[in-house]
Amino acid sequence: MGSVTVKGLVKQYSDVPALKGVDLNIREGEFYALLGPSGCGKTTTMRCIAGFEDITEGDIYIGAQRVNDVAANRRNCGMVFQSYALFPHYNVFENVAYSLTVRDLYRGSYGKRVKSFARLMSKKLGKPPKELYQKVMDALQTVELDHLAERGVGELSGGQQQRVALARALVMEPAVLLMDEPLSNLDKKLRNTMRTTIRTIQQEIGITTIFVTHDQEEAMSMADRIAVMKDGEIVQQATPTELYGKPLTPFVADFVGSSNIYDATVIDGRQVKINDQFVVHTNGVTENGEAKVLIRPEGIKILREHSESRNVIEGKVTMSTYFGPNIRYDVNVGEATVVVEQEFEPGIPVYDQGDHLFLHIPEERVLLL
Ligand code: ADP
Ligand code: MG
């Protein structure tokens, strides 16, 4: 029903190759994030799935149906945009009722067909039929805005407006919900609340959802699976934990979470010389030669005294930054910089610029990319 399959999707805008062969397999009921920097092709992918763009090459399936030649309004996709796109002169109820009314009028559900959208828009909606009223109120209840049904959308907060936009998409009972950076216009605190709201609603309804964001934390905290995009291509498709623990490329490693990424030389399969500065052992096995190495900052332990165990190196703190729950140290080891993050707990030693310390990098935290 609501699965989405994209095969070899290419989209060329005159001389801009926006998508260069995108493959996606989104399962029914899945919350799927498309993550990538600005300009990598996220919106274009969504617009192709929704049917707002002619595609250059490839196939798109919603459920079992190939929808390449199906018009946007017949694809059964609900869309929510960053810019809400609400009708400013309608109240909350009317905004949600509008598309449903138009669709149902055209399907003949409410008697006489209305000839022009313009007329409907200018007349407002009048008293809605009971069934339509109930559907709209149910959608508003889902987003917890039923008590504000009569309120003009101009008198709502950003978060409330975005919930109206969500209700407006959901009231159509789409097979697939497409959300393009829906939280980008909200302040950080509200964004965090809305993440939970959206995820909870998605799970309750069980609707297949594709969620576009450039914010890795948002993708990691909300999605069942994530596709990381770069320059019109999917670089990796994985669960949040796989993506974090086993990034396939330096780009993914750097984009998802903070990282120490180094040029390295593999000396004998299990020993790696980093930036020509220090040698560590790794669990990973690879051929000798050049490689990229990833060490997550929170995987490094700080020792107060030297220890004879493997993978202990000495360094000097060049910067210490306090982030509430975490402390971050930039540590110079020879000429390489190693970023270390430690959870802050009362009583732990705190280091300042200029302090010497020892770092223990567990072998399993030295990842070869
Ligand atoms: P994202 O949503 O990831 O920021 P987009 O999908 O909007 O990226 O854009 C991908 C690429 O396609 C960009 O290089 C952008 O400039 C280009 N692009 C998008 N829409 C158009 C258009 N209508 N005409 C020409 N180029 C476009
Ligand atoms: Mg975009």
| Second CATH tier, the architecture of the largest domain | 3-Layer(aba) Sandwich
Integer average pLDDT: 90
Structural class: alpha+beta
Domain count: the total is 2
- Beta-strand percentage range: 25-35%
Number of helices: 9
Which strands sit side by side, in order, in the main sheet?
Answer: 6-7-8-3-9-10
Number of strands: 20
Secondary-structure element pattern, one letter each: EEEHEEEHHHHEHEHEEHHEEEEEEEEEE
* CATH class categorisation of the largest domain: Alpha Beta
Helix content: 25-40%
Small molecules held by this entry: adenosine-5'-diphosphate, magnesium ion
Identify the overall geometry.
elongated
N-C termini distance: 37 Å
CATH topology-level name of the largest domain = Rossmann fold
Concise description?
This is ABC-type Fe3+/spermidine/putrescine transport system ATPase subunit. With 369 residues, this protein is of the alpha+beta class.
Task: Explain how this protein is built.
With 369 residues, this protein is of the alpha+beta class. It folds into two domains: 4-245, Rossmann fold; 261-368, Nucleic acid-binding proteins (OB fold (Dihydrolipoamide Acetyltransferase, E2P)). It is built from nine helices and 20 strands. The strands form four sheets. Strands 6-7-8-3-9-10 form a six-stranded mixed β-sheet, sandwiched between helices. Strands 13-12-11-14-20 form a five-stranded antiparallel β-sheet. Strand 9 and strand 10 form a beta hairpin. The longest helix is centred in the middle third of the chain and has 18 residues, at 188-205. The two termini are 37 Å apart. It binds adenosine-5'-diphosphate (ADP) and magnesium ion. Magnesium ion binds at residues 42-43. Keywords: ATP-binding, Nucleotide-binding, Transport. Residues 4-256 form the ABC transporter domain. It comes from Geomicrobium sediminis.
